[in-house]
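Structure tokens
________________
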Amino acid sequence: LILVLNVAAAAGAFGGGHLQDRIGHKLTLGLTLLGWIATCVIAALAATKGQFWVAATIAGLSMGSCQSVGRAMVGLFAPRAQLAEFFGLWSFATRLASIVGPLAYGLITWGTGGNQRVAIPATLTGALPQRQPPPHAQPRRGRLGHATVAVAAPGSDATRKPRDHSSHARGKGL
């Protein structure tokens, strides 16, 4: 099972990379998310070993694709001056997830008296779309061209549009 998972993950990484070049990062990552949801549903409903193997293969494909597409998106969205910081945070987050995910799965299984059929669908809660941040916390473009995030209460000074000083910088005054 581990061999199948790793071979499928390698295929998913290569396939996901080619797919994101053709249809884009966001759509490819969305398809990967659908793959994870399908994995959870198939594994939860599996009645035979063969069905579970199918779920494991889809999980491997999704895992490889998710890793390659996710890293590419981090590189795409991170400000050039802070690439190392963003990739360091990415590495930390993935390592934390590799600890928290199995721990949560184990705790749910233990809490339900060993019923893994309850634990598998419970993992879907992490894959379902999360609530969007409020409009006052949406990313907006900064002066250097990369995204900055302003988090402030609606109507405060931080949510107002900053003044454009570009004409002043060109010597034309305000």
The helical segments are 2-23, 25-45, 49-77, 83-111, 116-122, 124-127, 166-169. The chain has a mean pLDDT of 78.
